[in-house]
């Protein structure tokens, strides 16, 4: 059975940096559609204290989501040194598909088909596949690619995650400060090298009371247009859900790979809230019987890039691989964990070894 290796990676990080001052003139409402009685300075300061998001990146208004995806994908293809028409699949993870400057979401044609078109791929056997799976979408795409490769149904698969989220946030919701734009991609390839590749992966889907923890909903402002829908998240519910379920899945996946926490050099965890990420890493260590874990095992990009959903993990992977995250490298033989949580509610995790 072939192994699945990551043979190339790439990312697109928008140039526009959006800091705290951008939100100073905002009008914020709570979940009960009541205007918040604190000053915007206080609201923003508390937000930064909890999430550590000081900046985020926004794409230009005239840039399409599929354009960002294609830029990241092109870099991954070049890095993998493959011919693009050799790709068997393009798995594209996104939450809103193509997004225009008014925030309209479009999935016709499919997002993955648009990416294939922008890449100039003419092979009719290259199958485009949209992965709509919340923030864990890119990792779920990689897990699907691993299944396809190990079942010998494919040899080369492009997996891309791309989001243009700043147009999908309610102008009156303080949570709009979490979300950002960007794209990341990898090429997953079949390999006979037994030294590396995806060692284990797991996915869980929770669709009972968890279903509406993240959803689309109308504006918090009672006077705003109620036909327009925006990202709505129940922050406390998500925090509790993630802390309860993600560490357990990470531990299970590490053990499925025949490893322990001491064998793991990095945990690339979805970046949505720094406080939540730290708590999840701490719990992973405690599950392995270690009281004081090392937060350095989990690289962080949220402080500068915000939450770019499906783009977060592949962007972080690419930056580390290229030596662009100070203090973080991928050494030969190193084992890393990738894990995510998001709308669905879905969680997943995978262990990857570098050869």
UniProtKB/TrEMBL annotation:
GO terms for molecular function: 3-oxoacyl-[acyl-carrier-protein] synthase activity. It holds the Pfam family ACP_syn_III_C. GO terms for biological process: fatty acid biosynthetic process; secondary metabolite biosynthetic process. Residues 129-205 form the Beta-ketoacyl-[acyl-carrier-protein] synthase III N-terminal domain. Keywords: Acyltransferase, Transferase. Transmembrane segments: none annotated. SUPFAM superfamilies: Thiolase-like. This is 3-oxoacyl-[acyl-carrier-protein] synthase-3. It comes from Cruoricaptor ignavus.
């Amino acid at each position: 059975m072939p192994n699945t290796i990551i043979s190339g990676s790439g990312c697109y990080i928008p140039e526009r940096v959006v800091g705290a001052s951008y939100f100073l003139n905002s009008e914020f409402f709570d979940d009960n559609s009541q205007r918040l009685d604190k000053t915007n300075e206080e609201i923003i300061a508390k937000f930064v204290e909890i999430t550590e998001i000081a900046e985020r990146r926004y794409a230009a208004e005239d840039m399409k989501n599929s354009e960002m995806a294609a830029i990241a994908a092109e870099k991954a293809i070049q890095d993998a040194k493959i011919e693009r028409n050799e790709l068997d699949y393009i798995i594209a993870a996104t939450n809103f598909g193509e997004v225009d400057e008014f925030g309209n979401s479009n999935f016709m044609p499919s997002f993955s088909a648009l990416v294939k078109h922008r890449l100039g791929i003419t092979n009719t056997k290259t199958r485009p596949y949209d992965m709509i799976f919340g923030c864990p979408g890119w990792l779920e795409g990689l897990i699907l690619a691993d299944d396809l490769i190990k079942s010998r149904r494919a040899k080369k698969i492009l997996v891309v995650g791309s989001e243009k989220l700043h147009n999908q946030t309610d102008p009156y919701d303080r949570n709009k400060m979490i979300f950002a734009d960007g794209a990341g991609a990898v090429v997953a390839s079949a390999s006979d090298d037994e030294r590396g590749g995806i060692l284990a992966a797991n996915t869980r889907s929770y669709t009972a009371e968890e279903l509406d923890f993240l959803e689309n909903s109308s504006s918090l402002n009672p006077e705003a247009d109620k036909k327009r829908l925006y990202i709505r998240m129940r922050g406390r519910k998500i925090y509790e859900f993630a802390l309860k379920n993600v560490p357990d899945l990470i531990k299970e996946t590490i053990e499925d790979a025949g490893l322990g926490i001491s064998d793991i050099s990095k945990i690339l965890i979805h970046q949505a809230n720094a406080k939540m990420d730290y708590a999840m890493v701490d719990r992973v260590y405690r599950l392995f019987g270690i009281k004081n874990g090392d937060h350095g095992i989990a690289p962080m990009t949220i402080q500068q890039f915000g939450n770019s959903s499906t783009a977060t993990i592949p962007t972080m992977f690419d930056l580390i691989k290229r030596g662009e995250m100070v203090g973080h490298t991928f050494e030969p033989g190193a084992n890393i964990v990738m894990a995510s949580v998001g709308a669905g509610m879905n969680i997943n995790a995978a262990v990857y070894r570098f050869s």
